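Case study.
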Amino acid sequence: DAKTTQPTSMDCAEGRAANLPCNHSTISGNEYVYWYRQIHSQGPQYIIHGLKNNETNEMASLIITEDRKSSTLILPHATLRDTAVYYCIVRDFGNEKLTFGTGTRLTIIP
Amino acid sequence: KAGVTQTPRYLIKTRGQQVTLSCSPISGHRSVSWYQQTPGQGLQFLFEYFSETQRNKGNFPGRFSGRQFSNSRSEMNVSTLELGDSALYLCASSLLKSQETQYFGPGTRLLVL
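After joint prediction, the assembly is written out as follows.
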């Protein structure tokens, strides 16, 4: 699986959009970009995933660059409950193994 | 639909003992994966089961084993526990063998004394 690089930590004001970047410069054509988050001591929560196109669901939006070497997770209106560690993962379709990096610790500030 | 459930949620054992952890996947899900999370190593993949067969295995010693039953429920076993096995053990399930999205349970926190 390709490796990902994420900032160690970020802060965001409550109510603002949180933009979390991820670099995956060695991603291959059949690898998806997944985002999970983990609130302290809980199991990781699936957020969103994509291959080439931008994706949006009720939780977030995923913007993938045209060359697929980086992506951004957008939480449109951050709340205090969005404080968590966010993991960006690239994964080969059909491979059940998820390789987690160190993630970004996002703190939402009141 | 109920999520992934794991039992027990907390466990304390002593070195040399063995432990069995249980995972019930989301109804209808057939693939179960196990992960270990420690402060030092982060989240690491242990193994994955589909249709009662281990399909993928991470880089862990043979003391770590697992199995899956016909109802897709899974157990993992750690024998001869070491202090370093203290961790949060997470189970994740997905619908099919190549299903994209894994959904995680709350985890079992194991403390080895």
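Observations recorded in class. Chain B touches chain A at residues 4, 31, 33, 35, 42-45, 48, 50, 55-56, 58, 88, 90, 92, 94, 97-98, 100-107, 109 (CB under 8 Å). Chain B is about 0% helix and 55% strand. We will return to this complex in the next lecture.
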